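Problem 12. The chain below contains 131 residues. Write out its predicted structure in token notation.
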Amino acid sequence: SEVPKVVKPILKNSQKTRKETGGIRWDEDNLEYNEQNKSATMKIDEPPTPYNYGEGSDDEAELEEQTDLNTALNAALKDIPEDPKERKTTSFADAKEDQEKLSSFEKKRREHYNEFQKVKEYKEKSKPLDH
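Solution.
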């Protein structure tokens, strides 16, 4: 009859090879070279940033725009009266308008829902008649 063939594994047994060679072998030349060329600080190569640093013409346009904004701001500041009593802030006026809107809304809501009256009517309708 036939004798079965011995099939060798594809992967090598690393433990056998280490034992045969006497363990791990270090590349002494490479280690020595790295020790000699080692620096005290690590150099970091940073990639370029996506920020576009603009040309001179953009700076001039930006400067002109900033000047226009400053002029408009100064004109607006001149319109403000120096006496604090004469100054009106929009925040207080807006707050007063908001308060009026809220109270108006609450009044309309109470009229629309009138929960107390609805409950009272419901109780009267559901009362059994005692005649």
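Discussion. The chain has five helices and no strands. Students who got a different answer should revisit the alignment rule from Section 12.3.
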